[in-house]
Amino acid sequence: MRKICAIFVTLGFAASVNANGPAANFIEGRYYLAGDSNCRWYEIASPTRITCLDKDGEPNGHFRDALDDDQLRAFQNTPAGPSEEQLAYQRAYQAQQARELADQLRQTGDYFREIARTTQQAPVYTAPEAAPITQAEGETIICLRAGIYVRCRK
């Protein structure tokens, strides 16, 4: 049986490294300015903030908050904004992530359906019926016990 293991990594590399400055990077559903020398590597700090890391993966004291819609529009209208090539790369990357997630979900569903199918087909144990012990006058019945098993005789 296949085991499904999903590993979510919180470290990342800014997809578009720009020599002139940061670029808008789509990270977990939000855009952040990253890719410059102060924030080439990042770590998710909260749902709306990333922590910038140095080349050794240690926090360097820089934080970047997610861009709101107005900030993103203003950044994209500047010459240092993302190029069409960068946007195409980001869209392709997001589509690839969506396909991988869909595959993982499909595999997980298959795994649990297989568990449910094999559980439903498991044999049902029915305990055997035991004949009652009848004792005539003067007879002795001896029972021996070994763990959960008991054997009796006259």
Description of the molecule:
The protein has helices spanning 69-76, 84-120, and strands spanning 11-13, 23-27, 30-34, 41-46, 49-53, 59-65, 142-146, 149-153. By secondary structure, it is of the alpha+beta class. The chain has one domain (11-120). The strands form 3 sheets. The protein has a 4-stranded antiparallel beta sheet with strand order 1-4-5-6, with no helix packed on it. Strand 2 (23-27) and strand 3 (30-34) form a beta hairpin. It starts with 10 loop residues before the first strand and ends with a strand. Mean pLDDT is 78; it is low at 1-18. This is DUF4124 domain-containing protein. Residues 1-19 form the signal peptide. Keywords: Signal.
List keywords for this structure.
signal; 29% helix; disordered N terminus; four-stranded antiparallel β-sheet; two-stranded antiparallel ribbon; DUF4124 domain-containing protein; 154 residues; 27% strand
Write the layout of secondary structure elements.
Elements: E1 11-13, E2 23-27, E3 30-34, E4 41-46, E5 49-53, E6 59-65, H1 69-76, H2 84-120, E7 142-146, E8 149-153
Antiparallel strand pairs: 1-4, 2-3, 4-5, 5-6, 7-8
